[in-house]
């Protein structure tokens, strides 16, 4: 049995949180970690009690949806609400933080920002992080590491591919290549 790494474990948590997002434009999740413990989590969504983008559509001004509190901010605010210190903590986010979140993370004492995907990485945000001595580390989620029945799926796909390979046509060959890539069979 191979244990999941800390980075994958926390990054997977952020991806799980992102599935609760209520904004249809982008689903973001954030997990705040101190001493290898999850202390807070957030996703981008409306303020408590208000309507959701998924129900009413986004409220777009200048190309941005203004309805939501961003995932990073929600995670920090959860700490504020319950009195949990964020100084020297790390954050795991599904997407590179926007400029506003960047400033809030610096101000909250966050030391390392782990992000899975680049997302309009703002040059000023990068500059501010550098200035504040905050490390930004790209950690892509390895879906295979967090799939609990990956071995069974892989075996099933392998046997399906064997049957498919007998056909020898171009369509089957394309499907085989796609599956091999997805399940990292080669
Ligand atoms: Zn929205
Ligand atoms: Zn943001």
Question: What would you say this structure looks like, in words?
Answer:
It is a single chain. This protein is an alpha/beta fold and 186 residues long. Helix content is 41%, strand content 20%. It is built from 7 helices and 9 strands. The chain has a 5-stranded mixed sheet with strand order 2-1-7-8-9, with helices on both faces. It has a two-stranded antiparallel sheet with strand order 3-6. It is globular, with a radius of gyration of 20 Å. The structure holds zinc ion (2 copies). One zinc ion (ZN) is lined by residues 23, 25, 53, 58, 65, 67-68.
Largest sheet: 5 strands, mixed
Total of helices: 7
Radius of gyration: 20 Å
Shape, principal axes of CA atoms: globular
| Counted beta strands | 9
String of helices and strands: HEEEHEEEHEHEHEHH
| Largest sheet: spatial strand order | 2-1-7-8-9
Query: How far is it from the N-terminal to the C-terminal residue, by CA?
Result: 21 Å
What percentage of the residues does DSSP assign to strands (E)? Answer: 15-25%
**Low-confidence runs of at least 5 consecutive residues:** none
Report mean pLDDT, rounded to a whole number: 94
- Structural class call reads alpha/beta
Q: Which ligands does the model contain, each kind named once?
A: zinc ion
Percentage of residues assigned to helices? 40-55%
């Amino acid at each position: 049995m191979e244990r999941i790494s800390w980075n994958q474990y926390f990054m997977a948590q952020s991806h799980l949180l992102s599935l609760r997002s209520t904004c249809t434009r982008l689903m973001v999740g954030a997990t705040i970690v101190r001493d290898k413990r999850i202390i807070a989590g957030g996703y981008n969504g409306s303020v408590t009690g208000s309507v959701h983008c998924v129900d009413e559509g986004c409220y777009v001004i200048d190309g941005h949806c203004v309805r939501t509190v961003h995932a990073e901010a929600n995670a920090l605010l959860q700490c504020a609400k319950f009195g949990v210190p964020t100084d020297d903590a790390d954050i795991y986010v599904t997407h590179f933080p926007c400029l506003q979140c960047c400033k809030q993370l610096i101000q909250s004492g966050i030391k390392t920002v782990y992000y899975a995907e680049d997302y309009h990485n703002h040059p000023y945000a990068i500059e501010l992080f550098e200035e504040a001595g905050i490390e930004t580390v790209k950690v892509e989620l390895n879906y295979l590491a967090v799939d609990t029945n990956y071995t069974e799926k892989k075996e099933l796909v392998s046997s399906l591919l064997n049957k498919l390979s007998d056909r020898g046509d171009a369509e089957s060959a394309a499907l085989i290549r796609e599956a091999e890539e997805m399940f990292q069979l080669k």
